Recover the amino acids of this structure.
């Protein structure tokens, strides 16, 4: 009977080792990264993904958080609100308690309801719509400035530096663009500058000749555009073609190398509010090199905000020694964090306490120079 | 001239330009409908492919060092027409011919499927970002008192009018004078009878798809030069507008498609001129509904006689 | 073989033209410059393979065709038991399916239940559109407009007047039906293809209006914070809202987050069963018979004294009402709606469900709806190629089985040859 005893013992030991191994695996913390992997805005989802994954890999390489290693799990919502709800449910289902995402505000909004309800912490690195945090959520944070802050910056610049006589505000009828345009118009109205034209264009449209003729007719001398680069590029290009030569200003959504490609020379001198370029900050040089080494592009607007989102999360875990979202939420609100996007803190709503935007002047070769306030 | 009339003139010029290109694309819908009575939903994607081919050809030729602009444009036009026509032919051969004679809904679904397929095929092959090309034809003429309102017409707009006019005239002559054109008209009247008379109707149907695709390619070249940007999603809206134009003018009627395109373009421009431009599409579709209510077969469409 | 050579060469040439420029050459935006580069050799290898395959297939088309004809055709109905047996089994089968539908969510994960709920919304939409397209033969490309009307009815009534889901559900159906009636009345005089474009235009108009009417609908911001349905006033949330009571408090059980999802799912099941029941009843009524008669032959119908406008209008209205129900439920499931959920592609997907399932066949439509929502989830590995496959499958399905997965079978008598 002896040998069989031996086998039994050995089986036991093997099972024990296996259990131990399983236990060790349970020491990983899963972080959901939710955003578009497919669909027309997949390129922005990619920025968020490479930023968050880089942060996770670097933290793991440095020994993890309190001995726990992180694991990023990618979920695809295709920036479709319907799929975002499905993704949120799947994340709750997979017992993930920390999410970086979502990307599009229209996806973040329905998803954040579910996260709040189910006790999942969500930090978005890209959704800028003010209405997301207006409901007073406990577990929803963001590491990117709000549209309203950006709008205020633009309005201040127009009031103090531009002083237009006939101002037009154009937007693309989307959440982002229209929200910004409305903010700018209202702030200017308060300062006594009336908007002579406030109008939407259809996203994806290519012909703006009718709009430009109208701008010309109204003797507009300054245009604020709320929206993204494809439409603004065409408006600029067609304006210059028609001899309509006034300064334009846009939000961070237009600051993109593609704008230079579409608008060409017409883009010289366009003003834009944009986050400080984190990749040009000398303190981030090592990080930029790490992205370059992986053959990834660190210049997208959401790369560093996503990186910072993972940073604040892990810093809070380190400080509290817990992973419970409610404890972490208190920690996030009570402290300030040193991240790749600078030192940041969160207010009661979960928004950043400081604006990371400044005004830039764009040039035809795709470069930009900051205009100091 | 007063300020308002100059402004309206400017908007008419803008509207006619965009309307001309609607008309070019609308021909493809109307010819196919006239002969086999189906809506070729994938036609907008043929225009999109024509635009991509134009971009590839122009940039390719410039990279190869061909510097003469007319030669570049001519070669790009030929390339776009050849490739787009091949697509038109292949779509018909693969997706529609096997279904001919079946219920009418079936080819329509195939067409929607084909449209989604082609859109994503280009997206995967060329990426989903907007591609932009510097303006090759710049400048134009301006008239009117700058203090009142200055009307501008760019050379590109004039090129669009001329090319559209030439293509339309050529098509009209082809349809009314040539043997193949006569065969086309015969097919439109009675497909079965034409077949019995010894005309290869399959070949004629393929020909209509090719002609439609070629004209869509012409529109692709013109609009690529005019706007200078493309992405894989431009086909859908362009196709929808052109289809609206075709129905407006009376689907199946070639002069109707031209008229419908111009009316649609002008309506859009005038709406954008006097109302917020976000209502442009609402007015365009509203106009369509109105016209169909009073003339259920479109402006120039013949009332269909039901035969039992 | 000799005769096949020329067409095969031609087909190979066409394939080469289709692929050479569009796939073989790549446009690339480098900084602000646009460049073209030839694709890598592997891509050209694929192009060459495609050309060769097309050439060979065309060359051996006739032998292949004979081979294919020898294969037995798939006949789904042949797999089912005989007619009489089926009639006997039917009530039992239905009961079994209903019990199964109600029990399985308690055994699977929350994500799966949520996906099933989404599928049921599409089932409802498919069944509703089936009345218009499958029964009455009217091609409606703007069905999503009624879906949007239903969704916004609930969202707005709950936002401005605080009405509950159960009050809004019939209202949403009613309002969508009214819209259907108002739109249908002038439009239904038009013949098939004109009808298609007008409904398409109408769908776009509704979406653009919702997007532009910012004061009421919130424009592109949409409407958020829409309440979930309650069970006789009991809420399914962790903490009750003011004056409310939650499900787990009332029954004194532990809060389980998946209860909410399961409840939503059960509401969807209820709605789908209701839809099926109503449609099955109506289908057997004179009006249902009239729909099908009208689809088959309008002139014959008119000669028999049926009023085509009224018949078409009833189909249109009824289809719209079900879209309204579905929309109302969608708003409740989503908690947030914005116009971007109601684009043309949504209409196209619903239409694809109806056609893939087999127009008029309800079982087929249910299966198609399941396939359409589950397959993309399963195909997430091929995320990039998902829409490409979606389009391709739509084309191939129509070529392979134009009558749909499970074509509709009507009760009929056949004269057997002696």
């Amino acid at each position: 009977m002896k040998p069989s005893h031996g086998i039994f013992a050995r089986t036991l030991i093997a099972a024990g080792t296996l259990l131990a191994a399983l236990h060790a695996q349970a020491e990983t913390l899963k972080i959901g990264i939710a955003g578009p992997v497919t669909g027309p805005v997949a390129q922005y989802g990619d920025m968020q993904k490479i930023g968050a994954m880089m942060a996770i890999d670097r933290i793991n390489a440095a020994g993890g958080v309190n001995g726990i290693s992180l694991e990023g799990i990618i979920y695809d919502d295709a920036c479709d609100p319907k799929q975002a709800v499905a993704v949120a449910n799947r994340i709750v289902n997979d017992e993930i308690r920390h999410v970086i995402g979502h990307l599009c505000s229209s996806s973040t909004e329905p998803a954040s309801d579910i996260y709040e309800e189910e006790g999942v912490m969500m930090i978005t690195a890209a959704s800028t719509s003010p209405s997301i945090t207006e409901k007073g959520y406990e577990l929803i944070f963001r590491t990117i400035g709000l549209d309203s802050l950006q709008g205020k910056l633009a309005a201040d610049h127009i009031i103090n530096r531009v002083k237009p006589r006939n101002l037009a505000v154009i937007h693309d009828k989307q959440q982002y663009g229209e929200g910004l345009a409305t903010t700018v118009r209202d702030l200017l109205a308060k300062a006594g500058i009336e908007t002579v034209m406030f109008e939407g264009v259809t996203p994806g449209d290519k012909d703006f000749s009718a709009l430009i003729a109208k701008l010309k007719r109204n003797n507009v001398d300054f245009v604020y555009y709320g929206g993204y680069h494809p439409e603004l590029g065409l408006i600029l290009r067609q304006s210059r073609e028609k001899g309509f030569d006034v300064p334009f200003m846009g939000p961070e959504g237009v600051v993109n190398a593609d704008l230079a490609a579409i608008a060409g020379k017409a883009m010289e001198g366009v003003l834009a509010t944009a986050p400080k370029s984190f990749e040009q900050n000398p303190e981030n040089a090592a990080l930029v090199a790490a992205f370059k080494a992986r053959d990834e592009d660190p210049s997208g607007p959401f790369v560093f905000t996503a990186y910072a989102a993972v940073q604040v999360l892990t810093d809070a875990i380190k400080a509290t020694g817990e992973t419970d979202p409610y404890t972490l939420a208190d920690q996030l609100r009570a402290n300030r964090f040193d991240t790749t996007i600078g030192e940041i803190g969160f207010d009661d709503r979960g928004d950043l306490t400081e604006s990371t935007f400044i005004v830039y002047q764009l040039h035809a070769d795709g470069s930009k120079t900051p205009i100091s306030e | 001239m007063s300020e308002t009339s100059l402004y309206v003139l400017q908007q008419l010029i803008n509207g006619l330009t965009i309307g001309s290109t609607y008309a070019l694309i609308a021909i493809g819908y109307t010819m196919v409908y006239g002969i086999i009575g189906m809506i070729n939903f994938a036609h907008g994607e043929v225009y999109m492919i024509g635009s991509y081919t134009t971009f590839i050809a122009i940039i390719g030729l410039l990279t190869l060092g061909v510097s003469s602009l007319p030669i570049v444009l001519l070669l790009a036009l030929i390339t776009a027409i050849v490739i787009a026509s091949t697509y038109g032919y292949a779509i018909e051969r693969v997706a529609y011919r096997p279904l001919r004679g079946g219920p009418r809904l079936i080819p329509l679904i195939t067409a929607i499927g084909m449209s989604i397929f082609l859109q994503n095929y280009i997206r995967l092959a060329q990426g989903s970002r907007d591609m932009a090309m510097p303006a090759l034809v710049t400048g134009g003429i301006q008239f009117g008192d700058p203090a009142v309102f200055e009307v501008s017409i760019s050379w590109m707009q004039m090129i669009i009018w001329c090319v559209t006019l030439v293509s339309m005239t050529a098509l009209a002559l082809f349809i009314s004078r040539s043997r193949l054109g006569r065969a086309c008209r015969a097919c439109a009247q009675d497909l079965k009878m034409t077949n019995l008379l010894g005309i290869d109707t399959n070949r004629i149907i393929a020909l209509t798809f090719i002609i439609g695709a070629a004209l869509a390619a012409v529109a692709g070249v013109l609009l690529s030069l005019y706007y200078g940007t493309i992405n894989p999603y431009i086909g859908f809206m362009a196709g929808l507008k052109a289809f609206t134009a075709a129905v407006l003018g009376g689907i199946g009627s070639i002069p109707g498609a031209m008229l419908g395109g111009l009316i649609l373009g002008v309506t859009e421009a005038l709406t954008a001129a006097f109302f917020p431009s976000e209502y442009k599409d609402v007015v365009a579709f509203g106009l369509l509904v109105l016209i169909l209510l009073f003339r259920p077969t479109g402006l120039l469409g013949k009332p269909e006689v039901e035969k039992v | 073989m000799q005769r096949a050579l020329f067409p095969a060469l031609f087909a190979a040439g066409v394939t080469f033209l289709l692929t050479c420029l569009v796939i073989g050459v790549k446009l690339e935006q480098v900084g602000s410059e646009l460049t073209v580069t030839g694709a890598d050799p592997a891509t050209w290898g694929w192009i060459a393979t495609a050309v060769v395959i097309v050439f060979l297939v065309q060359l051996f088309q006739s032998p292949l065709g004979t081979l294919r004809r020898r294969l037995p055709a798939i006949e789904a109905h042949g797999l089912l038991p005989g007619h009489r047996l089926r009639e006997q089994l039917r009530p039992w089968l239905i009961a079994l399916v209903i019990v199964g539908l109600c029990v399985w969510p308690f055994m699977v994960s929350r994500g799966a239940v949520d996906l099933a709920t989404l599928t049921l919304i599409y089932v409802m939409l498919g069944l509703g559109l089936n009345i218009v397209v499958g029964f009455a033969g009217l091609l409606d490309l703007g069905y999503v407009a009624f879906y949007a009307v239903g969704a916004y009815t609930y969202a707005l009534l709950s936002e401005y007047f605080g009405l509950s889901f159960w009050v809004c559900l019939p209202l949403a159906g009613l309002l969508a039906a009214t819209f259907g009636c108002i739109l249908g009345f002038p439009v239904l005089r038009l013949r098939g293809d004109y009808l298609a474009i007008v409904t398409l235009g109408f769908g776009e108009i509704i979406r653009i209006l919702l997007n532009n009417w910012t004061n009421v609908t919130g424009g592109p911001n949409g409407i958020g914070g829409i309440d979930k349905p309650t069970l006789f006033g009991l809420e399914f949330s962790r903490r009750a809202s003011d004056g409310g009571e939650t499900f787990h408090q009332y029954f004194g059980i532990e809060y389980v987050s998946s209860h909410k999802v399961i409840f939503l799912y059960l509401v969807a099941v209820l709605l789908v069963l209701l839809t099926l029941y109503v449609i099955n009843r109506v289908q057997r009524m004179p009006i249902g018979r009239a729909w099908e008669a009208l689809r088959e032959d309008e002139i014959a119908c008119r000669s028999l004294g049926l009023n085509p406008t009224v018949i078409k209008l009833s189909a249109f209205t009824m289809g719209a009402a079900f879209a309204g129900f579905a929309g109302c439920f969608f708003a409740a499931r989503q908690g947030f709606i914005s116009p971007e959920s109601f684009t043309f592609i949504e209409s196209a997907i619903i239409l694809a469900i109806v056609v893939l399932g087999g127009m008029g066949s309800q079982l087929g439509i249910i299966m198609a709806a399941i396939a359409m929502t589950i397959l993309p989830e399963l195909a997430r590995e091929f995320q990039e190629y998902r829409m490409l496959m979606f389009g391709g499958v739509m084309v191939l399905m129509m070529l392979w089985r134009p009558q749909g997965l499970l074509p509709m079978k009507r009760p009929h008598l056949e004269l057997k040859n002696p």
About this structure: Residues 136 and 291 of chain C are 5 Å apart (CA to CA). Residues 2-62 of chain C form one domain.
